[in-house]
Every structure is written in C-alpha cells, then in structure tokens.
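Per reviewer request, we include the raw input and output of the structure prediction for the construct analysed in the revised manuscript.
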Amino acid sequence: MINNYTEPKTFGSNGEYKDLRELLDNFKLEKTALERLIKYKQDKNVSDIDNNCTARRKYIFKPIADLYKLLWDVDVTVNSKDLLNSGETIVASNLAFRRAICEIPHKRGGYFSIKWEELLNDNYINNDGIQKFAHAVATIGNFMPIPGAEQKMLTFLEERFDKELKIIQAFYCHPDIMENSLPETICKWLDLYGKGKNGWIKFIDCNFFNGSFVDENYNVICYDNSLEQLTEMINNRSNMMLDAYSKSWEKMQSKIKN
C-alpha cells in the first residue's frame, strides 16, 4: 500500500476487472460470479461493496472509498459532510435480468424481486452472457459517488440510467424546459460541473461515461435491454476508471519517493 490507498491491481489489470465481492471474506467459497451475486442478494449478513453515508444508512467499503477519493476527491466517511455522501451502482442487476430474460423467476407482484435461489441451476450457471454480466456489475465501472437524492430519482426511473442521463443532459442543454424540475440537491450536484453544453461535457468526462454510456458525440446510448450491452458498457467504463486511478496512484507514489 502507498499512502494507505488501495493499489490499482486490486481493481484489475490487462483488461480484466475484479469482482469486488471476492475481496470480502464471505465470498471465498462461491465459484462463479452468478453464485456470488445470488449470495450478495440473499445473505443479509454479508458486507456491502458500496458506500453510503446518508442519515439513514452508514457503511464504508475501503477500496471503493479510496476510488472515490482519488478519482472524484470525495471524502466518503461515516462523518462526511460532502454533497456526494452516497454511492450508486449504475446498473441494477435485478431489473436488468428482468428486462433481458422474460422467464426469469420472480416473486408475484414484485417486479424488482427475483427468486435468486432459483437461478442456481445449470441453465443460468452455464450461461456465459449471464456470468459475464454478473461479474461486471461488481466491478468498478458500475460505481460512482452521488448525493442520496439521486438514488431516489433512479428508482423512480425503474433503474434506467440511460433515462436519467437524458434528464441530466436536458438540465444542461435545455435549462428553460427543466427549470424547477429537479430536487435542489440534484441541481447542486449538477452545478458542480458548470452550465450549458460545457457543463454536460464536463459531467460526462469527470464521471467516465464517454465511450460507455454516451458515444463520442456525447449522445446518450439507450439501453437495448440486453445483458451483453450492459456488460460492455460497464467494462468500457471500468477501463477508463482503472487507467485514471492508476495514474493518480502513481503520482502519489512519485511524490512520496521524491
């Protein structure tokens, strides 16, 4: 460890990104990413791999806290007063599965509620696309620091982050239409990146969405409801984030040596 920050190789290397659940002691026996995801969803005693410092919930996962500090300069601690006091998984596995696999077992009347234990069969365990997606959702490309209010907005949009990005783009590029449409906390968050089209571009660049969730022209890429698309998006973002984290970590190392 350098300066007590998590080393870049912890998050992955050479185009392979770490399933962060493997860093937890609870997940030493699970052989596949899908088995780890199922346990993560079912076992109330497992530790969380995200961060949350809102009044309602407070927990810290050091590797992600370090990631947020070096990439966003966000101090995610249980006593943090930072506007970005929580963490978000951009792609929710439950709704992604529901949209991609219509026959996936779910609880009656609960669109969000998958019968995770019923996925422990060969039809799912041996599905390469499902395994790759189950792995991707636990890599760094699926995480970002946000204000707590953003989680409510994404839930309202049924976890469609592409729709949320469309709203954020409208906030920057069509402020006359979006006036008084978003909560104050969300507006303060978005104002950190500036105004107008330049604000939108900075928001995308600073959050590593270019080439993953938006294209080279800063247009939002709409979900096609396939696991393959979401896996590719997350992997592309992981690549950008790991590269940026490695550079920041190496700069710190150089300063210490000098």
